[in-house]
Amino acid sequence: MLFQIRHVLDYAYDRPVFLEPHTLRLTPRQDASQRLLRHHLEVQTPASGHCAVQEPEGSEGIVLWFNEQRQQLRIEVESQVETLRHNPFDWIVSAAEARRLPAAYAPPLNASLEPCLAGEQHPEVRGWARAIAAEVDQNSMAFLITLADRIHHGFHHVGRLDGAPLPPEQTLRERCGACRDTAVLFMAACRSQGLAARFVSGYSCHHPPEVSEHELHAWAEVYLPGGGWRGYDPSLGLAVADGHVVLAAAADPALAAPLSGTYRGTGASSRLSYTVKLELLDQPEPPKP
Fold first, then answer.
1. pTM
2. What sections of 9-165 are H helices per DSSP?
């Protein structure tokens, strides 16, 4: 699919504030599943300086810094992205120790994936995931799609404009959450079964039922030898193919946020508004032989 994306963020402050350095993660990722054809980012009024950086888990970031006070920060992004993964099941698990649950990884790979495995999961989440694993005879690939389907059909999906993801045990207990909440629950369930999982932010052409217009979306990626990082969207109940565009992925959801930064100003408050416009264009012509 060929995506045309326009994303505008407006931060307004009720009095002049000093902005600490901000990190923007609004550049679509380039990898085996998608290709960035065009990208333009503009800050109004321009920052005092900026620098492109590569984040710890490979995402591209832009660090902005500011030397003067301001009452507004407006960021406009336009991107054109071609998604390439038409079949989300075009892979095999190439390592026997990862085919059945609880999964395991070879030592060098395990060390690299440790941030996406670390942490003891809540007993309620662990028990729930263990029951699903038993239903699919401990098959890791079957577990992933069954888990996504179970969350999609068994939970009430809501829109929540701001705030960090809820603890996974709260989302499980209430059977309710926004896309970022169900993504974190999916990650926790996978990690409890030895599967490396991380948080993803980006866009999707598929509308969750709780959303009436395009906005940022969140899902999860799981690593299995032979397939690499593969996306699963529990709010939609599917394995991710070419209908999603990735901005950033990280073991900690905070490190995949499209924008991170703080401000200083006594008694000052902020307000965020944003628009996301996503269009599907005709496919580009294939290259000539």
1. 0.93
2. 107-113, 123-135, 140-154
